[in-house]
């Protein structure tokens, strides 16, 4: 498990492009028959991916967690961005197709992942935050997810927001998780930009077509920075940072948050004309 430590606003304002990437970009999420995990000090979120091809792979228990098992003091959100797959949790099996999700609560001990077909392996995106209450394990199929259509083609930001783990959906201790799909011809996400000092956030960009990329914007509103992001790469967003982006074509991304509250609408917006 890799570690990413905090960086202050002042530090980030002086970062080179490579320093930004080293601190905030998670490049290796999916690898055949492997589970990759990155531990962020921001709200102690763990970002990861599991890509089973041949047989099952088990959720590890990294030594630095100092736990008897991974979810002893944590909860876990899982969204599949690949082929059909199976999540097993303490003997219960959840089969999920692309863009369906599973939530596993604190106290779940034995977790493993597998694919229905090695020719079309599942790609399970993982987000885990500390938990101090137990909520039941639950599956949510894509067709049952609460959706909201926002933006417009005229503003190049027509998109559909899918809410999975939130106040009115799957219940959790503090994890909030969902995804956004941009329509063809739209490239902007989260504009006007916002921050929420009460929560950190992480983005996984996916369905970025070959040869295309996303320009992810971060930093303070008057001191913005950027990171070029490829398909299946994630960006860690500190609570004080904006998190927005524009692609060379339309794309999708999974957003996930943890912190002070679970209110999806808790955002402090900035006027577009204020950005520097």
Automatic annotation (TrEMBL):
Residues annotated as binding Zn(2+): 194, 196, 201, 243
A Pfam entry, by short name: KduI
Required cofactor names: Zn(2+)
E.C. number: 5.3.1.17
Enzyme class: isomerase
Gene that this polypeptide is encoded by: kduI
Pathway where this protein functions: Glycan metabolism; pectin degradation; 2-dehydro-3-deoxy-D-gluconate from pectin: step 4/5
Domain of life according to the entry: Bacteria
Entry's family note: Belongs to the KduI family.
A single MF term (Gene Ontology): 4-deoxy-L-threo-5-hexosulose-uronate ketol-isomerase activity
SUPFAM superfamilies (UniProt xref): RmlC-like cupins
Transmembrane segments: none
Keywords assigned by UniProt, alphabetized: Isomerase, Metal-binding, Zinc
HAMAP family attached to this UniProt entry: KduI
UniProt entry tagged with the keyword Zinc: yes
Function: Catalyzes the isomerization of 5-dehydro-4-deoxy-D-glucuronate to 3-deoxy-D-glycero-2,5-hexodiulosonate.
Cofactor note as given: Binds 1 zinc ion per subunit.
Name of the protein: 4-deoxy-L-threo-5-hexosulose-uronate ketol-isomerase
Reaction catalysis annotation: 5-dehydro-4-deoxy-D-glucuronate = 3-deoxy-D-glycero-2,5-hexodiulosonate
